[in-house]
């Protein structure tokens, strides 16, 4: 007499059958842009996303954001300006504010120091040139627009920078009148100078005309000088290589385009940023 084997049982399990804590854990693995779609799928998941967002609005998140605002008021991006009213968790006006803070991630901002390119302490060669004009952008502050120049040079020094790893970036915008008549062997040079254990060190990176053309087309740019797009508007961050400051001192950024002697322009400069990343 043969032995009859029973068929394995495969119970039908739905996503919503999982424990609430497990579903919250799964939310941590979803990209931020997918959370609104998930919340629109059903009432239960909408409540789940709400609990997840509320959990992410931690004390560190809110306090870090309040600290950032206290030192960088007047130099906010479009996205940041939409939540500049938030100082406490009670100031959050719904999920839109939560999503904006999660896009900005102030809890990962250890220290951020910004300076406007329109300030006199920023070296801007030819600042008084009528083809370099200070205009007010959509946020109501002055930016420097370079319309037509032969040489471009921007420099700034942050003093008393403490030990740690830092990232320098420049916020720029390519305008409709952008002109860059360079040959392939006429680079724009980006430099970050920083203190090491003995003396100073410079990281120097050149970008060619192809890099600028890709930037104008809105293409993604990687490499040692990368570009980060912002969530709103046409402004972008040109991000220079990370540096490791090994003693208290000065960090300097330089942007120079002096090899090509032809007229160039169609760039706006908003602010320079020094951000501690570790």
Characterization of the model:
With 278 residues, the protein is α+β, with helices and mostly antiparallel strands. It contains seven helices and 13 strands. It has helices at 20-27, 35-39, 43-56, 59-72, 78-81, 95-104, 209-216, and strands spanning 111-116, 123-124, 132-136, 142-146, 152-161, 164-179, 188-195, 200-207, 226-229, 236-239, 243-245, 249-257, 265-276. The strands form two sheets. Strands 1, 3, 4, 6, 9, 10, 11 and 13 form an eight-stranded antiparallel β-sheet that branches. Strands 2-5-12-7-8 form a five-stranded antiparallel β-sheet. Strand 7 (188-195) and strand 8 (200-207) form a beta hairpin. Helix 1 (20-27) crosses helix 3 (43-56) and helix 3 (43-56) packs across helix 6 (95-104). The relative contact order is 0.17.
């Amino acid at each position: 007499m043969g032995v009859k084997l029973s068929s394995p049982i495969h119970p039908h399990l739905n996503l919503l059958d999982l424990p609430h804590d497990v579903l919250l854990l799964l939310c941590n693995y979803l990209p931020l842009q997918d959370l609104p779609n998930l919340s629109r799928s059903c009432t239960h998941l909408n409540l789940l996303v709400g609990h997840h967002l509320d959990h992410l609005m931690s004390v560190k998140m809110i306090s870090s954001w309040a600290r950032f605002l206290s030192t960088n008021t007047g130099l906010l991006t479009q996205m940041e300006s939409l939540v500049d009213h938030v100082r406490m968790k009670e100031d959050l006006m719904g999920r839109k504010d939560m999503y904006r803070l999660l896009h900005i991630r102030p809890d990962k901002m250890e220290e951020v120091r910004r300076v406007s390119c329109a300030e006199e302490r920023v070296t801007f060669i030819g600042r008084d040139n009528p083809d370099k004009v200070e205009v007010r952008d959509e946020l109501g502050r002055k930016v420097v627009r370079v319309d037509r120049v032969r040489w471009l040079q921007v420099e700034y020094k942050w003093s008393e920078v403490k030990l740690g790893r830092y990232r320098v970036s420049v916020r720029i915008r390519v305008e409709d009148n952008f002109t860059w008549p360079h040959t392939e062997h006429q680079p724009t040079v980006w430099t970050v100078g920083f203190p090491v254990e003995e003396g100073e060190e410079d990281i120097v990176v050149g970008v060619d005309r192809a890099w600028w053309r890709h930037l104008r087309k809105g293409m993604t740019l990687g490499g040692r000088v990368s570009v980060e797009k912002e969530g709103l508007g046409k402004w972008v961050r040109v991000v220079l290589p990370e540096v490791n400051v090994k003693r208290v001192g000065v960090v300097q950024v330089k942007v120079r385009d002096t090899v090509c002697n032809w007229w160039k322009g169609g760039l706006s400069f908003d602010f320079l940023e020094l951000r501690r990343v570790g």
